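User: I'm writing a short methods note and want a consistent example. For Polyisoprenoid-binding protein YceI, I'll paste the sequence; you return only the structure tokens, no commentary, since I'll be parsing the reply automatically.
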Amino acid sequence: MTTAIHIPGYLAGTWDIDPIHSDVSFVVRHLGLARYRRSFERFSGVIVTADDPFASTVTAEIDTASFDTGLDVFNRHLLGSDFLDVETHPTATLVSTGLRQHGEDYQLDVDLTLLGTTRPITLDVEALGFGVGIDGAKKTAFSAATTISRAEFGLTYQSTLANGNFVISDEVRVLVEIEAVLRKER
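Assistant:
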């Protein structure tokens, strides 16, 4: 049996992700130079912290059209059939399949569905804590990150510059900062 690292204030229960105090972002290399970061504005999810922390689960849904590059022409291209194809696939989903300790932190195995393709990925997770907000509500927070390949999800559109650099990298870094509010204690 695996022994969990002590997390101060750990509380078993059902938690709703608070989109106001959370962030779901992606980072790609642009032109082989800069790191280009954007956040999805609309997402939801539920975290169930179990009595045995390693039996905890997460489900989440992201509105893939809910980011803004600041330029309408880029938005139309990224939301169109060359990339996210939001008309056909308006959401990305994440369903956890397992949690394990990794050093002082954790790794969360999930099935990520994007563009109708489901692939297993692993998120590196840091449990930030459990506590009470200024409104008296019980809260918890986590940070998570992973790197995925666009091509593995069917995002194969690519344009190359004269110097050979790709306009947008295949590698996408996914960064998640989650604060959740207790719905029901176990």
